[in-house]
Amino acid sequence: MKDFFRYKNAIQTTSSKFKFSRVVIPFIGYSILLSLFTWNGNIEFITFFGLIGLVFAMSFISLQENKRHYTLANNYPITYKKRLLYDLLISILTVLVAIGVMVFIFTIIAGTIWIFNGGSIDDGTVTDETIKTSIYTWAFLVWFVTLMIFSNTSVDKKTWSLKLFGGFISALIINIVFLSLIKEKFLLIGNIYIQNENKQLFEYIGAFTYLIFAFILGYFIVKSNKPRLKICEKNQCTD
Amino acid sequence: MSEAIRIEDLVVKFDNFTLDISGLKVPKGIVLGIVGRNGAGKTTLLDAISNTNKDYYGKIYIDNNAIWEDEKKYLKSFGYVPDTLIFNPALNVRKLLEIMKKSFLDFDEQFFLKMVETLELDAKIKIGNLSHGNQKKLNIITIMALKPQVLVLDEPTEGLDPVSKNEILDLIQSYIDDEKTIIFSTHQTNELDRISDYLLFLEQGKVLMFDEKEQIVNDHYKVVMKKEQLTEEVKKSLINYQVNSFDVTGLTIDSDLVKEMHLDYVKPTIEDIMMNYLTKRGVKK
Fold first, then answer.
1. C-beta atoms of B13 and A5 within 8 A
2. Closest chain A CA to residue B20
3. Which of A126, A136, A216, B61 could hold B6 in an S-S bridge, CB 3.0 to 4.6 Å?
4. Phi and psi (nearest 5°) for B50?
5. Angle between helices A135-153 and A20-37 in degrees, nearest 10
6. What's B127's DSSP letter?
């Protein structure tokens, strides 16, 4: 445990310089995808889940970001397993703090509205959909956050963007094909989610699909970052 | 003499550049200067050694530790000072010291404080507000206070005034002992003349030369000859030559040529050697 606190302190010595473009590109993709889900104008999904997801992803990325940038934290002498575990713990702590801050801000806003409304809040401003934490949404979030992290940690400079784009498009195609088959007609995700009568089935199957993606991408993150010997013979470089 | 760094079959590939070093053994207790033109691969090599760039093929051992075998030992065996500020600019030196003490058990506080005093660094103002030179000095002394066996510095004196350059070179020299090794890259050949024991010349991603500095200098002759003496045969023996108004100056490693033609020669400087190897042959002055 002492190791963890020392590592956490070492992070304090660094400045948070990570490639902004690598966060912006996934963020745009994220916004587009979530826009499809929130076709009906249910923007709260983007604001709430999006913020939590981004806080987690960006904190993890900033901890993992070590390409072309040296800090005392990313070369802190600990084993790879410990680094992963500590980064995960710090990211979770960051999210908890972020949630605390968000709750505090929302409380102030709600309190202000409450005062100005003379001690009452219009029930219509908070709907079930606003606070609904479906498995499907969380699974999607896990997948996308994993994808974001992957895009920032892939060791192969040339193909990271290709992998990101490929993963993004594949997920879309799989879902569109799968959901179109269910409804026996071609539909985009947002429409079908709204129109689907059996939302629970939709959620579980969708969740399963995205979680599988998350596990596969997560595996590649761990694999690509682990220090390993790569040998290059006769100009033919292979892992 | 045991090795501080051993490199085997290192290949680092970029879109239009490849660093390819088949073998390199850097002894302990020396200062190695890496020199080469812009884009020769100096920073690429240092990034691979310092684990800043993990996208390389081949083997790098520091103090006999390999990253894929024991990453903890490998990361502990070296300290890297890049050419940019590595600390949060919002901290001041005092706060940095506090954090470093908490983060690294073997951080040498006494050394750090002594150096802060010697180099007259203001401990109260934010690191981001320190001058470029002082930021570089702070980078170096903080990493030195971790007492790494191998200290790797990327262009430590780049963009500094002569006084600051001197201070940093003194600092580098004061760190060296039988067990500690320093590797630094530079464009300044006078720095290599002053503090380096070994030289590594890189050109277009390949090792042009790697040896003791004295050996490299002793192997080369800077010769002067009359224009008529510059025959095709002689040209072949010269690494490079410059045709001046009245005579020809050149660089060679052919001692027989010097003796047989009774040529006037002097021992070249590192700059002479570098310029002759890296510039176009037979340029008229």
1. no
2. A235
3. B61
4. -90, 10
5. 160
6. G
Q: What is the pLDDT of residues B232-261, one digit of tens each?
A: 888 888 999 988 888 899 999 998 988 888
Any bridge partners for residue B80, and if so which?
Answer: B152
Q: What is the CA radius of gyration of chain A?
A: 21
Which residues of chain B are at the A interface, by a Cβ-Cβ cutoff of 8 Å? 9, 11, 13-15, 47, 50-59, 66-68, 71-76, 80, 82, 85-91, 96, 99-100, 102-105
Residues of chain B with C-beta less than 8 angstroms from the C-beta of A227: 51, 54, 67-68, 71, 74
Per DSSP, what are the bridge partners of residue A170?
A: none
A33 close to B106: Cβ distance less than 8 angstroms: no
Q: How far apart are the C-alpha atoms of B174 and B148, rounded to whole Å?
A: 14
Question: In Å, how far are A55, A162, A216, B60 from A150, measured between CA atoms?
Answer: 16, 12, 11, 26
Q: Per-residue pLDDT tens for B38-59? A: 889 999 999 999 988 888 899 9
Nearest-by-Cβ selection for A80 from B9, B71, B87: B71
Please report where in the chains the tokens 């990101």 appear, as a residue: A164
Task: Report the gap between the CA of B201 and the closest CA in chain A (Å).
Answer: 22
* Complex ipTM value: 0.81
User: What length does chain A have?
Assistant: 239
| Residue-averaged pLDDT of chain A | 63
How far, CA to CA in Å, does B120 sit from each of B72, B81, B164? 34, 20, 11
Which residues of chain A lie closer than 8 angstroms to B96, CB-CB?
13
- CB contact at 8 A, A98 and A32: no
Mean pLDDT of A120-146: 50
* Mean pLDDT, range A22-32, rounded to an integer: 53
Q: What pTM does this model have? A: 0.77
The closest of B181, B193, B216 to B26, measured between CA atoms, is B181
